[in-house]
Design goal:
Helices cover about 55% and strands about 0% of the residues. It is built from four helices and no strands.
Length: about 120
C-alpha cells in the first residue's frame, strides 16, 4: 500500500474517519437508496483500507515496543508497519523550463498609415 499512518495524530484522524464511515454505512443499510449505491461501495472500500492501515500501524507500534512480536506477526502472516525504515518522502517535482514571465515580441516599426487624401491625390492630377 502506498499510504501509511505516520503518527498518532494521523491515527486519531483515521479512527474518527472510520467511525464516520461506519455511521454512513449503517444509515445506508437501514434505508437503502439505489441512487447512493456507488457511494456506499466506495465508503465500504475506504473503510476496509483504513482499517488495514490502522491495524498495521498498531502492530508496528507493538513491534517497536517488543521486537519479539515481529516473528509472531510474520509467522501468522500479518503485516505490520516497520518504524525502523525511514518513511518514504515524496520527491519534489522536477523543474521545468516554463518561463515565469511571458516574453513579448519586440515591436517592429510600422509604416505610418496612408491617409485617404494622400492615396487619392494622384487621381486629382
Amino acid at each position: 500500500m502506498s499510504r501509511r499512518i505516520e503518527n498518532d495524530t494521523q491515527l486519531a484522524k483515521a479512527i474518527q474517519g472510520m467511525q464516520r464511515l461506519s455511521e454512513e454505512i449503517e444509515d445506508f443499510e437501514d434505508t437503502p437508496d439505489p441512487l447512493n449505491h456507488d457511494k456506499h461501495e466506495k465508503n465500504r472500500n475506504v473503510l476496509i483500507v483504513t482499517s488495514k492501515l490502522v491495524q498495521e500501524y498498531s502492530r508496528g507500534k507493538e513491534v517497536q515496543a517488543d521486537p519479539s512480536r515481529a516473528a509472531y506477526y510474520d509467522q501468522m502472516g500479518w503485516s505490520y508497519q516497520d518504524f525502523t525504515a525511514p518513511a518514504e518522502t515524496p520527491k519534489p517535482a522536477p523543474k521545468t523550463n516554463t518561463p515565469t514571465e511571458t516574453k513579448q515580441a519586440p515591436e517592429q516599426p510600422t509604416e505610418p498609415q496612408k491617409t485617404a487624401s494622400k492615396v487619392s491625390s494622384w487621381l486629382d492630377d
